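Morning F.,

Quick status update on the modeling queue. The single chain you submitted on Monday has been processed. Sequence for confirmation:
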Amino acid sequence: MDRFDERILRELKSNGKLSNVELANRIGLSPSATLRRVQELERLGVLKGYRAVLDLNKLGIGFIAYVAIGLSNHSKKSQQGFEDHIMGAVEVTECLNVTGENEYLLRVETSDLAAYKRFHSDVLGEIPQVNAITTMVVMDTPKDER
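Structure tokens below.
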């Protein structure tokens, strides 16, 4: 990777909807050279995809929490069982396997606190591998570059 590749990544991270011509103008290369570089970054897996940034409030998401999950058993089978349950939970938008006191950190998005309470008891509370649940409510998001 050279400085042009780095600039391409920086620009696309900021706005993945840039046209190839606009991207080329911003980084100082021809559109054809820029396109070849973007395609190579995609082929190498450096660029894994493009996404839309959504306004969660307009979509009815008024409650966001990070939830630390401790498992009762630390085996691979237990982890896989937990992950299988979580994959079907639409409220979970991110599931991270982490080190430390807990095995998982979840990002959970619901319409409100009552909906989170239902998710907490009806989904997390029913997963047999779960031993501990610690909820951290998001009060504000001053920076989000996901």
